[in-house]
Amino acid sequence: MPSRISDASEAHPVDLRSGPSDFTSLEELPDSYKWTHQFDDFSFTPVVDSSLVSESVPVIDLNDPNACQLIGHACTSWGIFQVINHGIPTSIFDQTESTAKTLFSLPLEQKLKASRPPGSLHGYGRATISPFFSKLMWYEGFTIFGSPLDHFRQLWPQDYTKHCDVIEEYENETKKLAAKLLCLMLGSLGVGKEDVEWAGPNGDFADASSASQLNYYPACPDPDKAMGLADHTDSTILTVLYQNSIGGLQVMKEGVGWVTVPPIQGGLVVNVGDILHILSNGLYRSALHRVMVNRNKNRISIACLYVPPGNLQISPLPKLVSPSQPRLYRAITWNEYLGIKSKYYNRALSSVRICSPLTGLADENDNDTDVKVG
Ligand code: OGA
Ligand code: NI
Q: Whole-prediction pTM value?
């Protein structure tokens, strides 16, 4: 059976109401976690050894005087890059990783006390994209949007404040970095803060929010048949991801295939999300990415999901629209976009694309904008 199903409303063989399995008790890969990769459309595309690709995911030093241009180039050609010298002390990531490790090591019944309720963005559970697939992912996640206090009190009745402080510090630092990256990304398109209505009086995008996404991919008895996190684009402006020394993240590079994003010491992965793709009028790619698992090591990653205010109308920035660059997307709020994404998944962007003036049809088959660019 294909691992991919086209619509969340299709009959589902796996009960998604329950939380993730207790992975520590599974010595063999259950059928419900076996992905028949040969049927999965994207798995037809070869996985490319990143050391053999002449061009690999760009690594950009934020102290480089050309950082702005390099970032712009990375966003148009890859939609993803890594940054070094980003200014966030490693101790912040060490502490957040340690909180994540403590959280995912709790007994399953304890973690389920902080389960993400249906339709909610916060808490513990399976991948939010699970409903689109007939197979389960080898993955547990915990999303923090707003204060983690209530959930953390459930998880650690004694020492929740310590973990709340760690998350708060992580959020402050990564949110500042995300705003700085957004300025550089827009700057490279010739767009200043003054051209973005919602940049706020100080130009620091103070109304944007960030959510923290803790991801856990336990060591897996049969990694070749399992999937950590299936292919998706992020519904964010941009995402900043810390991956510890264990790799697994891959990005779809047009014309090449899946390319591994290797962990680099002190580096952070930055990817363009669907909202920045819309704001840039399609110039920046929303990176299609996925995560593979491994046999011996538990992998933790921590994402800062940088998102716009929920009710703000997002549309291509006026400076990027002209007779030669017609507007590609209609205005949409982030809240509305999340609803569309939960229905159409990787086709969400094409569903908000303005009809092509040439054909009068939305570019449904334009893969470039459907999944690869966004
Ligand atoms: C995500 C994601 C990648 C990773 O959280 O959206 O793509 O390496 N994570 O865990
Ligand atoms: Ni992602």
A: 0.89
